[in-house]
Amino acid sequence: MSDVNAFFKFYNNFVEERQENKMLQTVILKNNYQDSINLMLLTNRINEMESVSMSQIMMGTNANKAILENTGLLTDEASQASPNDLMVVVDSGSSRIMENVLSEVDKFLNDLSSTKSETKTRSSESWTEALDHLPDANMALFSIPGEYGAVEMETALKSGLHVFSFTDNIPIEDEVKLKKLAHEKGLLMMGPDCGTGIISSLPIAFTNVITPGNIGVVGASGTGIQEVTTLIDRLGNGVVHAIGTGGRDLSDKVGAITVKDAIIALENHEPTDVICVISKPPAKEVRDEVVQLLQSITKPVVAIFLGEKPTAHEGKVYLAHTLEETAKIAVDLAKSVKIKPTYFEPVKQPSKKLADDKVIKGLYSGGTLAAEAGMLLSEALGLEGLVKQEGFILKSQGYDVIDLGDDRYTQGKPHPMIDPEVRIKKIKEYSADKSTGVILLDIVLGYGAHEDMVAALLPSIQAAQLQAKNENRDIYFVATVVGTDKDPQGYENTIQRLLDNDVLVAESNAKAVQTALSLKGIELTEVSKETIVYNGEKIAVPKASPKVMELLNSKPRIINVGLSSFNQSILDFDGKSEQFNWKPRASGNQKMIKILNALDDYEDQINEENHKVIDKIRNAQPFLRNVVPAKSVIPELNERTKTLLHAGPPINWEEMTGPMQGSVIGAAIFEGWAKNEKEVEALIEADEIRFIPCHQVHAVGPMGGITSGNMPVFVVENQLDGSVGYCTMNEGIGKVLRFGAYSDEVITRLNWMKNVLGPTLSKALQQNENGINLSVLIARSITMGDEFHQRNFAASLNFLREIAPSIVLLPIDENDKHEVMKFLADTDQFFLNIMMAAGKSIVDTARKEAKGTVVTTLSRNGVNFGVRIAETGDQWFTAPVNVPKGLYFTGFSEEDGNPDMGDSSITETIGVGGMAMVAAPGVTRFVGAGGFQDALDISNEMAKICISHNPAWTIPTWDFQGTCLGIDVRKVVETGITPVINTGIAHKEAGTGQVGAGTVRAPIECFEQALEAYAKSLGIKID
């Protein structure tokens, strides 16, 4: 241990040098009690002031004076301060610094409210929470990355929710699986890649504000729906439903599952008088099946299958060629007006024509609009027809039409209706090509779309126009605006701004293509259509799903999974929504996601197992029975082999960090095995001391956790089944064994605790046949501001209140009584160790014959964090432990802090400590400069990884909710939220002791290992 001696020599020299050169100034603020955490924050602020070399602001307790002495800041004035006095000690070369310091102190103490005062909108972090918040939800709206979409949508469908999937990039195999599942459950699977929808006149996702009416739309197309519905609106009619299905629904692999279910639903929906079907180019056999269904229903139908150029209407199905024609036929049907042979209208011919070698380019944010443009151009110019490659819809003889919403452009990037970046680049690229004469654009308005796409695109359009002018060539921009006057961006205003910048604007996409072709001197025409008899067979129309009919006959109640902006249209039109702030399950860890998905099939079994465990915790009856030498109740300490217990999972001497090794040395000296550290090291090298985890023998130990045979321990019995828990007694603060100190004063105190404190408490407890009911004491103390890890002030006083009358009556030396009573009164954290023993007795009951995913141990040894769960008994799952984050005493920083250690996280295991931060808001000062809101947020976060609440220990500042109950390893892995642990911070070198206090997060890897082990116990194997 020569390195320890060297450290102390260096440290003492450092202190002496500092004292010689100090200019210490002290002010004592009499009878001014302040919370220690606030004062640590205040000290940090003062230390940042110019001219301040070092400062410390503390209450005048003996322990705090010892800290001042250790850092060379104890002055004569400070040494005279009472525990209720506030000591302000500053080392500075400026004689007037105290004036500025006191001004800052006054400002700080007058403003201790939370820095986070803004209110927060409620949202959910899990499916369970979302469904709890909106129990009557009937739809889930998805806008999450496609790689995670299928699994989440399956969860929604299994929860009885219709799915609206704006999410794209879903494999076709998954789409088929999801749509078959939805059909089996009587639900609608709208999407994937469903860009828009209207349900009961409620606009959803990328959607326009459309007047309600009697037309129902089914669309295997997003912008196709938007084009048709906005045209219907501008023609003076309205739409009641627009059910998007995703563009692949009419493919041969999917087979129009959603289209058919939607048609059947609209057939049975009384307010719908006309059905309008819109589809991107379909598979021939699927298209024929859809037409057969349409011919079999009773309501009039207009349908467009893009890519087809119908020459006649067939039976009761009116077949349109363009989206504009579709809208006009639908309106006439809705008004019971006779259908016209043609709805074609020529556009005004331009005064100037482009040269023959000039070509037309189309840059579309909407796939259906791009397909329609490609179709019309190909028909008019005799091109090769539509393609689907690398985002191109048309690529022939220099004529290009691109769907910028294709997966190629949206993987990992926003949709072009939101982000103009890709289109701006393409405008620059194509406008620089001297063969380009016309660039076609769509400007899509409505909810979800860019708030001002015109402003975003105009600079690139103007630059292209200027470049062409400078090069003495013509280039035209022709736009169609998809929208209505009720859309947030404003339809008329959008058109006017385009016209003001020499952009030609057409009233429909079809007319925009007509305009572009007219610039080349080509005029589009449409044939007149008659109605011919349908000679195919009709079918018996299946019954509509009650769940789908309920959706269409009421306002949707939506769980919005992803983009929060999609809530706006729902709320604006009196729908209900719950924001689900989704993130990938298990932080995107694919192996863990597969395990969680597999465990979903065992939900009922796991819940039953878990509730058996948490019922034992909830019904626990811990009683403090006695204080006895550890060896009298722990057989392993009474054997011939010298044995020490330590905190955390198993560890050997060589792995132990400085403070734990220091505790070992102190314990060995205390037991009389050695006189100094060298002799202790010799015993260890001779393998004469063995180490056992406290948890292995029904014990727990704070910080280093070192427990030896002659140390007195609390004995707590859980009367529910007789399980016991043991823990050493709290030594107070300063230089103490648990932080690795082993000086003479430490050993002296341990001997006093063995000879006086322990026996006195034992005798006092024996006067009460049942001991002290700790659950009642805990319940009382939590209402007084304790969380039982960093804050035990009320509980320690309540314990003193319980035990003092018995101590007073003991026939022992009066001086011993006085010392014991004073020690209990002065030791604010005395109850922590009692709480730890109670926690151990509770979890050891819960662990008996237990199964399930409830965490039954959280512990750390300075190297590893250890977790145990109900299913796997004594098996440890470990990962490297973190260094606490928090506030450090003056002269120390995080570089000095030892990685976290101790069994005191047994408090968090049973739902208090960091889990119950809201009970003691001041403790959040260890996290940062926060207040009550931070405490509330932390406890709310911890509740998300727990199964229930403990009604025995209710928290007034949490609306009298009980403390968290039952950390579920599944929830930890799924959410990525790990337990917060309140902790003291030990110096990494043995003997220095405590240097701060703060919080630490348990590493997620422990819980992942535990989850995998649980899955294996069920026979689940994941590669």
Automatic annotation (TrEMBL):
Highest taxon of source: Bacteria
Keyword terms, alphabetized: Coiled coil
Domain CoA-binding, first and last residues per copy: 212-307
Pfam families reported for this sequence: AllG (PF06545), CoA_binding (PF02629), Ligase_CoA (PF00549)
Signal peptide: none
Molecular function in Gene Ontology: succinate-CoA ligase (ADP-forming) activity; succinate-CoA ligase (GDP-forming) activity
Key word rRNA processing present: no
A cellular-component GO term for this protein: cytosol
Amino-acid biosynthesis keyword on record: no
Gene3D superfamilies: conserved protein of unknown function from Enterococcus faecalis V583, Enterococcus faecalis V583 domain, NAD(P)-binding Rossmann-like Domain, Succinyl-CoA synthetase domains, v583 domain like
Regions annotated as coiled coil: 592-619
Domain ATP-citrate synthase/succinyl-CoA ligase C-terminal intervals: 363-516
GO biological process, one term: tricarboxylic acid cycle
PANTHER family assigned to the protein according to its UniProt record, in alphabetical order: PROTEIN FDRA, SUCCINYL-COA LIGASE SUBUNIT ALPHA
Protein name according to UniProt: FdrA domain-containing protein
Species this chain originates from: Enterococcus hermanniensis
Lineage: Bacteria, Bacillati, Bacillota, Bacilli, Lactobacillales
